[in-house]
Amino acid sequence: MAPVGTLLATLAALLLAVASFPADVLTNRACASKFPIASPVERGRASFNDFFRCFRPGNVIASFLDGLVDAHPQLLRKVSVASTVQNATVAGYRLSLSESTDRPAIYVQSGLHAREWSAISSTIFALTTLLDDANAGSMAPAAFDWVFVPLVNVDGYEVSWTTNRLQRKNAAGVDLNRNYPSPYVNPSPAATFDEDYAGPAPWSEPETRGIKNFVEDRAFAGFVDVHSYGGSILLPYGDTATPHKDAAQYALLGRDMKEAMAHVNGSYSVQFSWELYVAYGGFQEYVARAFDKPSITIEMRGDDFIVPAATIVQRGRELHRGLVQFAKEIQRFGDNHDHNFTTAGRAKLN
């Protein structure tokens, strides 16, 4: 038997570990025990699943999304987008009303920053709502497929559930939303220990390289990057105040999305990204320049990175309305009416 002193020291260490563990992690783990995911997922009612009663860890997210695919094999297909530093898979989910694999799609991602749980849950809720619509044959607009990548920073998200709730960067300590190329030089680059460290070079991270290859090889008509928090619809550019050539169209797009999201009691501002703050190496700027397609960032509403699980459905509904409006608007945006969807040709979405 161990000495009493050793036992007391062990107990003290355990109590300290529990006390220092983020309260919302403990709250959501307790919530998950109370509300396990209903399986199999009910067709046509995926957005009503108890999954959305709590924030969920990465393995549960993956299991739920795989369950969606299993329940809707004619509508939803899982694709591999990238790998992470720790060799986890960054998964995407292609939603389509058509059997064709070469239709243009709208790309929606979240979770570049691990601590933004609300962005990730909102994206998954929007996906399930569109899936419910598609199951009823009413997904709008029908001109596009959707590709959702709900969790890019898989490694960092795991850290946010275990050791650092406010983890932002990937496992290599790089901000994935600063790791894309920019034609402008950052006059004050972040140090390695900073939260927005851009990495040693653009594309240095397997997550960003994988996304680059994925979007370059497929037909996308528009891009949405979901973050939290702040309640903003952000338009390009973020690395220069020089207006985008389609700035007027972007302003109208943002206004109409704002109005659509307001129908769910969502109050969002619209501004060009640089007006919030100047940032270099962002995903939004990369795809806007590389493909000349509508590219926006949505910062979900909230007062903090840590928010109650009771807000999940509300934020998800806001995002769903915004995405549907985005899809309607981009049909008449820029060159989309010419169906010139990629720089590399109309490759299959596989």
TrEMBL record:
GO cellular component: extracellular space
Residue stretches in coiled coil: none
Annotated signal sequence range: 1-27
GO biological process: proteolysis
Keyword Transcription regulation annotated: no
This protein's UniProt keywords: Carboxypeptidase, Hydrolase, Metal-binding, Metalloprotease, Protease, Signal, Zinc
Cofactor(s) named in the record: Zn(2+)
Stated family: Belongs to the peptidase M14 family.
Entry protein name: Carboxypeptidase
